[in-house]
């Protein structure tokens, strides 16, 4: 593969991102600390920190004492220097959260949804984003970095891939990202729910103590987010982690993907609905609350589904563990916690895998700390990661400019919509 150079202006932009990310993740830090972490000279760090401070992205947090000479000045991220929005779309609700650049939730919204077609669901997503962007008594105007939207399904370049996501009819090949960007006049980044849940868990949940884990996401279907060496892994085309379509029962139940015996046909919440409500007219009225009530009351169909789901999940988990050297598998998503607890209980004993070769310091299966909050929090990190690490993503050119004011961060890091790649 041919190597490509980088011009001076792009190098300066990259260095700004590196310095800001070091302070964001590890601060408060002195200039010398940042220089050691980034490999940049102290003078370069001093120049960049002055630029970041001038536009309000970082601030002085005081001086250290106990050393010789003038105590070094520490810097930390200024939470009010920028904001991002995360939105999670599931079968029943659109949930949104406004987060400052220090990662702290500021405000949230939750709106019910009815019909799932784009013409019905898109206005609900737009209303949630617009409501959060117009948060009163907060200096959001001119500081909004964009919004992340997470939905079930296979996404590539902001479009839902082959077929419809489970429970979201009519979205095949729909340009979700482009449509929302043009309507809302701000950077919008669309990602699948499992990857964003894994990102949220890495930033705010049990994943903070792990560098390598897979997040098994129970929405209406099943997803899988992969974190390798602390960063999300998407694969060559953004399609990594399609655990739902791993075959666990050769020749088994037919799946919309064209295969038979896929995991999603046995271990998803939707498969639980099918077990409990086999008649089509009943299936349309299925809800998480009804499934939970059936399990707690000892309904035979619901309990049989739990046993089957655990059986096929054991097979998938053994394969995952034999493929990856993980700290743990994390399970979560917008699944009712009692259902998740019952499912995890029935996974024991897990099948033998390479994870049993060496002594382990923790459990093989860990429950998410965030559960239903994870996808929205993970989505709020998408504008930040696309601003700071545009080289990790396919460029998404657009002529749209934010109606909510151009964030000063664009001047230092580049507009994430202009196709710039560090």
UniProtKB/TrEMBL annotation:
GO terms for molecular function: kinase activity. It holds the Pfam family ROK. InterPro entries: ATPase_NBD, ROK, WH-like_DNA-bd_sf, WH_DNA-bd_sf. Keywords: Kinase, Transferase. It comes from the Bacteria. Transmembrane segments: none annotated. Gene3D superfamilies: 3.30.420.40, Winged helix-like DNA-binding domain superfamily/Winged helix DNA-binding domain. Belongs to the ROK (NagC/XylR) family. This is NBD/HSP70 family sugar kinase. It comes from Labrys wisconsinensis. The lineage of its organism: Bacteria, Pseudomonadati, Pseudomonadota, Alphaproteobacteria, Hyphomicrobiales.
């Amino acid at each position: 593969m041919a190597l490509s150079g980088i011009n001076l202006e792009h190098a300066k932009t990259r260095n700004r991102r590196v310095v800001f990310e070091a302070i964001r993740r590890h601060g408060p830090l002195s200039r010398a600390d940042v220089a050691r972490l980034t490999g940049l000279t102290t003078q370069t760090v001093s120049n960049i920190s002055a630029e970041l401070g001038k536009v309000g992205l970082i601030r002085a947090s005081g001086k250290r004492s106990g050393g010789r000479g003038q105590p070094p000045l520490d810097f930390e991220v200024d939470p009010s220097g920028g904001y991002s929005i995360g939105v999670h779309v599931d079968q029943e609700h659109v949930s949104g959260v406004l987060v400052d650049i220090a990662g702290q939730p500021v405000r949230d919204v939750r709106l019910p949804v009815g019909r799932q077609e784009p013409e019905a669901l898109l206005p609900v997503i737009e209303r949630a984003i617009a409501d959060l962007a117009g948060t009163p008594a907060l200096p959001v105007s001119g500081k909004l970095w964009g919004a992340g939207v997470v939905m079930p399904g296979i996404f590539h370049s902001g479009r839902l891939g082959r077929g419809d996501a489970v429970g979201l009819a009519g979205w095949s090949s729909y340009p979700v990202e482009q449509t929302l960007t043009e309507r809302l006049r701000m950077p919008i980044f669309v990602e699948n729910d499992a990857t964003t849940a894994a990102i949220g868990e890495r930033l705010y949940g049990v994943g903070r103590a792990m560098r390598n884990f897979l997040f098994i996401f129970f929405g209406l279907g099943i997803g899988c987010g992969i974190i390798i060496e602390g960063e999300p892994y998407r694969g060559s085309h953004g399609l990594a982690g399609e655990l739902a379509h791993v075959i666990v029962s050769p020749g088994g139940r037919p799946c919309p993907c064209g295969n038979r015996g896929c995991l999603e046909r046995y271990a998803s919440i939707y498969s639980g609905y099918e077990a409990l409500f086999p008649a089509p007219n009943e299936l349309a009225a299925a809800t998480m609350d009804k499934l939970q009530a059936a399990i707690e009351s000892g309904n035979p169909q619901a309990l049989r589904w739990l046993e089957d789901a655990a059986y096929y999940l054991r097979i998938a988990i053994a394969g995952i563990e034999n493929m990856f050297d993980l700290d743990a598998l994390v399970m979560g998503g917008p699944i009712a916690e009692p259902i998740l607890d019952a499912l995890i209980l029935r996974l024991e004993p897990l099948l033998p895998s390479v994870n049993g070769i060496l002594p382990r310091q923790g459990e093989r299966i860990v429950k998410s700390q965030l559960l239903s909050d994870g996808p929205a929090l993970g989505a709020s990190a998408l504008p930040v990661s696309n601003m700071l690490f545009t080289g990790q993503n396919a460029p998404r050119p657009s002529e749209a400019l934010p109606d909510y004011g151009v964030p000063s961060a664009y001047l230092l890091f580049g507009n994430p919509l202009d196709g710039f790649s560090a």
